[in-house]
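User: Good morning. I'm curious how flavin-adenine dinucleotide would be positioned relative to this chain. Could you predict the structure with it bound?
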Amino acid sequence: MPREFRKCIQQLPGESFVSSFNQGSGKRVAVVGGGIIGCLTALYLHRLGASPIILEKGSAGRESSWAGAGILCPIHPWLYPDSFTHLVDGSLAMFPAMNAMVEQLSGLKTEWQTSGLLIPLFADDRIHHRDQALAWSKRFGWHVEELDSKQACKLEPTMSGHVGGALLWPDVGQVRNPRLLSAIKQALALCHVPMREQAEVIGVGKNGQGDVASVTLANGESVEVDAVLLAAGSWSGELARQIGLELPVEPVKGQIVLLRDEPGKVNHIIKHDDVYLVPRLDGHILVGASMERVGFEPGTTEAVVNNLLEATYRITPGLKDSKIIQQWMGFRPGSPDGMPYLGPVDGYPGLWVATGHYRNGVALAPGTADLMSRWIMGEEPKVDLSDFRVNRPAVNIDKVGFPTAA
Ligand SMILES: Cc1cc2nc3c(=O)[nH]c(=O)nc-3n(C[C@H](O)[C@H](O)[C@H](O)COP(=O)(O)OP(=O)(O)OC[C@H]3O[C@@H](n4cnc5c(N)ncnc54)[C@H](O)[C@@H]3O)c2cc1C
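Assistant: Good morning! Here's the predicted structure, ligand included:
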């Protein structure tokens, strides 16, 4: 991680987090969207002395931030520009302090753990990672090990004997999203940060000088504010259009199947071609996830679930007898180049954006919350964030951007 970025994302205090929070009598910031991005940024804003209010159209923490797998490493980071790795590195460096803070504040456990990430290599792989992955890891200092077939099967006994070898990143972590979100929500409540659910924002009002002055809710109510942070996940593109802004954020649906087996049956996150397995401590194994550009089409489908299961049994035949427990889906806030939009909106003083985190919103949450809260409170970022600016040209980057529409 570059030193400048380290400097700008100062770690949160280590001892009593509760006492470091003040009552927030300062800048009134309406945070639109109660997902991980909105909730965590509101918590950080509160810590900096602002008076945030979270406005959530449904129930907070129930959309993408609930549905995701919680892998704390991007899928194929070598396909992105370097600036993306710097943002990820910065954010992941903050994860331990953020996690300790919300666990301490809330009294709840998030099940954040270092389980490592393993990419098995087979002769007929569709996605060839090895060379790019090794080069990227070396450049950015991510510790990686090359395993032969025997070592890979020893680490993961359910693995197919056809595996030719594997790449292992032992330091990669994961978190149990719903638990993290519960802890953040509880921390917000205990810090008396107001959160209004069933409160859909439909407009942003300006004062005579053209500065943001209010938000309008679907029930006709107007809330007076000094600033607005648009963190509405997959709905951000729609809402942006409603307030006269072009933001190419669209939902990319992901389906997940939940298996259950003995704890320790799978030890690492296993990623192969388009499928990953994420083992939780209690024996649950998440198998994800599809990438579907089908708008806000709800529900899981038999075809996708079968594909995920077939891939699982091919990579790890030792899981054939695992119980299939549940299936669900979520809408990733997609962006054409796979990267988030972070920062102020030109020509719209007081309007800020933190959205489009796509496949990486949990990994990027601490960094986003830290950067955005400081920026909104008047502290300019000390790193170049131009690759994430709101008005960058929309270029669909093959492989990390939008999948082909159905
Ligand atoms: C299947 C799947 C797997 C994933 N796996 C991973 C992973 O392993 N690692 C990782 O880092 N990321 C992963 N992600 C991505 C990650 O979950 C998202 O990037 C992240 O949750 C986005 O957070 P958010 O707060 O922007 O959006 P959301 O969690 O969707 O929250 C946005 C909120 O805004 C609210 N809202 C929308 N419009 C309005 C409005 N007009 N007024 C008020 N409220 C509004 C919504 O109701 C919603 O609650 C995955 C996602 C999915 C779906």
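The chain is about 30% helix and 25% strand. The chain has two domains: 3-110+177-249+337-388, 117-171+251-334.
Let me know if you'd like a different ligand tried.
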